[in-house]
Design brief:
This protein is α/β, with parallel strands linked by helices. The protein has helices spanning 25-37, 73-88, 100-112, 114-128, 195-209, 242-249, 252-259, 270-282, 343-353, 363-375, 379-399, 418-434, 436-441, 449-461, and strands at residues 2-4, 7-9, 43-50, 56-63, 93-97, 133-136, 157-163, 167-174, 177-185, 217-222, 225-227, 230-233, 265-269, 287-292, 296-301, 407-411, 443-445.
């Protein structure tokens, strides 16, 4: 058995075809929990994570007593556990009831390490408007959270858009019927001028509007966090300097709405729309949608069909506990979702599979190359998809410890073509082999090809409720 800072790392029963060093987070957590359970006098650590509006989420975990020979594992276990909470739930104030030395180590991680500071800055400061505060206390606040309905409005003439890292999608919808959809390649990540983003969005909206007699409402999804249509944080704008972000990007979608006559307008996180698209197409709830695109987008619909205030940013949650795991190029952390469920993963696995690509080839074109090889029956490409499928199976098993799951919808550009079937097949095999209880509980779903590529934009169109109709149809205003 491998270890990382005394934390047990368990080799999976099903080894990823191209990654024998993979050590799934779910197996490490289960092994640590078993070690703690077998130890006299285990220590309970209670946690409460508070959001800016007072919503609070409660969690417990147990660790080894300080005198245990492997007590050094406690710090790694707690840091990875809290990281999952920060990125899946979100918040800025963390209450911790646990051993003082362990709480001090956790605080030092967020104060003194680059990865800890990244998480604290992006989640707490940018998304929740407060610096991270860790409060060591025995008096934890009670759980408090609400859910709300999202979208599902299909009446009228609507535009839906989805902004990804390598393409933007748009759909024109009349009373729930798609009359036009288009996908346009773009490169928003490293653009310093937000006018690039505005021009691209306006171009897509204009093309969709040309297929409608009027525009009653516009709904959109994009990577990031949005509150009342204002951008709090978003990877699409990571290349924009902070002064320009504050001056232009924060109100970018308000600017777009004004240009379209202030029609009902709603933009939300792409993960939420992923889950909404799944719920609408399946007629089911308790669903986690995972989109394998340029990065990883995810969203969750509760058992009662509502959404939560959770972040669901699974691109940054730990998937692989091996300390030598793939490193995320933005956060600098190891073993997180973006490197396992995305085009980035495909690009990372290609050379391991023996697939060469020209120097400088972008991720979308690398994916197209692998997809063409897969369509031709190339076994190297098949191993890429099989590896991602294995990752997904162990990832979903880990997610099930934090979400009430009955359905998992898998979509995104990476799942297009026959490789998508191999991804889902591999995930199912993992659950059946390692987690039979979860295999009976969780059903995987894959949309058809049109839904894979455009379902998110169509679901986005359903986001705004229509205002009372009257006056002239909405028209686009130039300038």
């Amino acid at each position: 058995m491998d270890t990382h800072a005394s934390l047990p790392l368990i080799a999976p029963r099903i080894t990823p075809a191209l990654d024998p060093a993979f050590r799934p987070a779910v197996l490490a957590v289960r092994a640590f929990d078993a070690l703690v359970a077998a130890t006299p006098d285990p220590v309970t650590v209670r946690l409460a994570l508070e959001q800016a509006d007072g919503s609070t989420f409660r969690f417990d975990t147990r660790v080894l007593p300080a005198a245990h020979a492997r007590a050094a594992a406690n710090a790694t276990h707690l840091e990875r556990f809290v990281k999952f909470l920060l990125w899946s739930r979100g918040g800025w104030r963390l209450f911790v009831d646990g051993p003082p030395a362990l709480v001090a180590e956790l605080a030092a991680h967020y104060r003194d390490t680059a990865t800890g500071r990244f998480d604290a800055s992006l989640v707490c400061e940018q998304m929740f408007d407060h610096p991270l505060e860790i409060v060591h206390t025995h008096d934890l606040p009670a759980e408090r959270s609400e859910t709300r309905p999202l979208g599902r409005h299909l009446e009228g003439c609507r535009i839906g858009f989805d902004l990804g890292g390598s393409d933007r999608k748009v759909a024109a919808v009349i009373d729930g019927r798609v009359v036009f959809s288009e996908e346009t390649v773009w490169d928003p990540y490293h653009q310093p001028d937000p006018q690039y983003h505005v021009d691209g969005i306006m171009d897509s909206l204009a093309k969709a509007a040309a297929h409608l007699p009027r525009v009653d409402a516009i709904g959109g999804s994009a990577a990031g966090v949005y509150v009342n249509n204002r951008v709090k944080a978003g990877s699409l704008f990571r290349g924009v300097p902070k002064d320009l972000f504050d001056a232009r990007v924060k109100d970018l979608f308000l600017e777009v709405r004004r240009a379209w006559g202030d029609v009902p307008f709603e933009v939300v996180n792409d993960g939420e729309v992923t889950a909404l698209a799944g719920s609408m197409s399946l007629g089911a709830n308790a669903i986690l949608g995972i989109a394998l695109g340029t990065s990883t987008a995810a969203g969750y619909v509760t058992a009662d069909g509502n959404i939560t205030s959770w972040l669901d940013e699974l691109a940054f949650v730990p998937i692989d506990y091996h300390p030598g795991a793939a490193t995320d190029e933005w956060s600098g952390d190891y073993g997180v979702g973006s490197q396992y469920f995305s085009q980035q993963c495909v690009g990372r696995l290609m050379p391991v599979a023996g697939i060469d690509s020209p120097s400088g080839m972008g991720l979308p074109d690398r994916l197209k190359l692998v997809q063409s090889l897969m369509a031709a029956g190339d076994p190297r490409a098949k191993r890429v998809y099989q590896t991602i499928g294995t990752y997904l199976g162990y990832g979903v098993a880990h997610f099930a410890g934090f979400y009430d799951l009955q359905h998992v919808l898998v979509l995104g550009r990476v799942t297009s073509g026959p490789g998508g079937d191999d991804i889902v097949r591999g995930a199912r095999e993992v659950l059946e082999a390692e987690f039979p209880d979860l295999a009976r509980q969780i059903a995987f779903h894959v949309p058809n090809e049109h839904e894979k590529r455009h379902g998110q934009a169509i679901a986005a169109a359903s986001l705004p409720a229509l205002a009372a109709r009257g006056g002239n149809p909405a028209k686009h205003r130039d300038g």
